[in-house]
Amino acid sequence: xxxxxxxxxxxxxxxxxxxxTTLHGDERMSFIVLMxxxxxxxxxxxxIDDVALGELKEAVKEGEEHAGxxxxxxxxQGLELSLRALRAAGCDAVGxxxxxxxxxxxxxxxxxxxxxxxxxxxxxxxxxxxxxRDWASRARHKVGVPVLKLFAHNxxxxxx
Length: 160
Hints:
Layout: E1 2-8, H1 14-21, E2 29-35, H2 41-52, H3 56-70, H4 75-88, E3 92-97, H5 102-113, E4 117-122, H6 126-130, H7 135-140, E5 147-151
Helix pairs in contact: 2-3
């Protein structure tokens, strides 16, 4: 069985579940999911990304959109939704919400589980990526296994 530590910041969509569960062909997959919600930090990062890309109108809207997200799923609910979706796809899946020191927790989980790889699945964060401060760039120097960076396909999790 191939074991992946999957680091996410929001619930997996059905497209993302299909994508990560088919990365290794027919090999049976096991996932350890670490949900690391960004909270208010993501509003600032998205606004900076929008300004850097010249999308000033989008930067202004970021605070409004985030207020709508707060009314949605909690991190624990999003994690449970993601775990159910991975299990429904035929994979073993366990996970936890990580609030503090996500990269330290990531390293500990990789070491404890003997994981084969880390998958970081997030929305693009252009400014962080440019300065190599995104999770995947930082994890590559810390975990000792291959780190695959993927971009989330869809904003809406599969709630069915």
